[in-house]
Design brief:
It is a single chain. Helix content is 27%, strand content 25%. With 495 residues, the protein is an alpha+beta fold.
């Protein structure tokens, strides 16, 4: 019987950068899998292709369920959730990795499970292992048999080959061999484990649920997923930290990696994270609003209306409007019920373009000089269609203001990014992009402006950047070894 595969992503969703996954784990509550399902629902923006949950019950052992599609469609029925009993569970939502869209098999859906001599363990991973190809070749040569195409499975095989005497120690051993950017949630029969790589590129937070004298523990990619289950935010897992959590001993902190200067992904602030999350002690919404303020200062323009490209451009548009004094208006309305399987994407439907997802508020737009605020420009295809819609509605002028610097380099740390030659900013200057989009003006926030909005008053420290901004700067804090092996060229001094 052929392996079921996920249908291709919706044809109008290919002009944004996509986070590849979100992770969530709960220990110490009855029916932990139900809490994990709620947490994954709150993290659905981080991965809409597939999801999985593994739970452990002292009597029934480990159980798992993995499905394609949305959490709401798969992990809300009693029939499925009753197969995932126990006080300990972890879960994962994902996008496919770069280059594999439409080719994902159910065996690639996390969490992954392994049985070791000291008991079973499951693991879910957010990010990307940049030396996964080399590790996979080495492990296969030594007899490992892989069941998936996911780089995350390397961690399970490295754990199996470790000589350490318990599973957390084996995980430490395995992760020291791994390069790249990753946050991990894992579980044994009695423990919940969370890890961030030494640079802390991808997020991971710790929460507590229930009364303090008998509380359970939660690990999550974002704080917004703690809110949905009524958990209290405790702290972020620190870069390079591993926490091993049990009901008996609470939270034990370990340091498996050599300490490095943190380089958290700045695009989490721009787009990936939900605006109601807290990152680095800062409100994501407030950072995005401040991006709009900085953008208005850097790139003012005479206009009649500031309009967000929903939904990701909204906070920055609010900040831009407040700083510039130009009225804010919802000139574009998003169809909130547009699903990826709404209708078979025939050629006629494809030609409708973004009109299936977005509609112009004609009464507001007509005759106005409009500033459109969006989070990023990737290929530029969607931006051109939105501009055409605005002009068709009778706008006098269209000005784009972008709440991130030009995206000129692919991300190899857990973000689904097109090949570099498909990134508009990799082949065009700002003026050339303006002409390609056919707008009256186009301006991006500067890298320094983005850093100021994120709380770095002095802007970017060019000798030692405070964030990972490789998609803008081409400066990769971890060498993408697998991609270099495939022929990817790093940034040269001339660039």
């Amino acid at each position: 019987m052929p392996t079921p595969q996920m249908p291709p992503a919706h044809p109008f969703d290919d002009d944004k950068l996509h986070e590849e996954c979100g992770i969530f784990g709960v220990l110490g509550v009855q029916d932990a899998a139900n809490f994990v399902a709620l947490g994954l629902h709150a993290l659905q923006h981080r991965g809409q292709e597939a999801g999985g949950i593994v739970s452990h019950d002292p009597e029934q052992g480990f159980n798992s369920a993995r499905r394609f599609g949305y959490v709401r469609d798969n992990f809300t029925s009693t029939d499925i959730m009753e197969t995932l009993p126990g006080p300990l569970a972890i879960g994962h939502v994902r996008y496919s990795t770069a280059g594999s869209k439409g080719q994902t098999a159910i065996r690639d859906v996390q969490p992954f499970f392994g049985e070791f001599s000291m008991g079973g363990a499951a693991i879910a991973h957010n990010g990307n292992i940049t030396n996964a190809n080399a590790l996979r070749r080495e492990l296969i040569e030594r007899g490992s048999i892989f069941q998936s195409s996911s780089d995350s499975e390397c961690i399970i095989h490295l754990m199996a080959r470790s000589l350490q005497r318990d599973i957390p120690a084996r995980m430490e051993d395995a992760l020291r061999r791994v390069e790249g950017a990753f946050s991990v949630v894992a579980m044994t029969r009695t423990k919940l484990i969370g890890v961030r790589d030494a640079l802390g590129v991808r997020p991971l937070v710790l929460g507590r649920i229930g009364p303090e004298e008998n509380s359970g523990w939660v690990l999550s990619s974002e704080t917004c997923a703690l809110d949905i289950i009524g958990a209290e935010f405790v702290r972020e897992i620190e870069p390079g930290e591993m926490v091993v959590i049990s009901q008996e001993t609470g939270v034990e902190s370990r340091r498996p990696f050599r300490q490095k200067k943190p380089r958290f992904c700045i695009f989490e602030q721009v787009y990936f994270s939900r605006p109601d999350s807290i990152l680095g002690g800062r409100s994501v919404y407030e950072t995005r609003r401040q991006i709009g303020v900085e953008l208005a200062r850097e790139a003012p323009v005479e206009a009649d209306l500031v309009c967000p490209v929903p939904d990701s451009g909204t906070p920055a548009a609010i900040g831009f409007a407040h700083e510039s004094g130009i009225p804010y208006g919802m000139g574009i309305i998003r169809n909130q019920y547009m699903g990826r399987t709404f209708i078979e994407p025939t050629e006629q439907i494809r030609n409708m373009g973004v009109r299936l997802k977005l509609n112009v508020n004609r009464a507001l737009i007509r005759g106005k000089r409009v500033i459109l605020v969006d989070d990023s420009v990737v290929r530029g295809t969607t931006s051109r269609k939105i501009k055409e819609m605005i002009l068709d509605a009778g706008a006098a002028e269209v000005h784009f203001r972008i709440a991130s610097p030009p995206t000129a380099w692919p991300c190899f740390y857990g973000v689904d990014t097109p090949q570099r030659e498909k990134l508009l900013a990799a082949t065009m200057s700002e003026d050339e992009m303006r002409d390609f989009l056919g707008v009256d003006s186009l301006k991006f926030i500067s890298l320094d402006g983005l850093y100021r909005a994120a709380g770095e008053a002095g802007g970017r420290n060019n000798s030692c950047p405070q964030y990972c901004d490789a998609c803008f700067s081409g400066e990769y804090p971890v060498e993408p070894a697998d991609m270099i092996e495939k022929g990817f060229k790093l940034k040269t001094a001339a660039e």
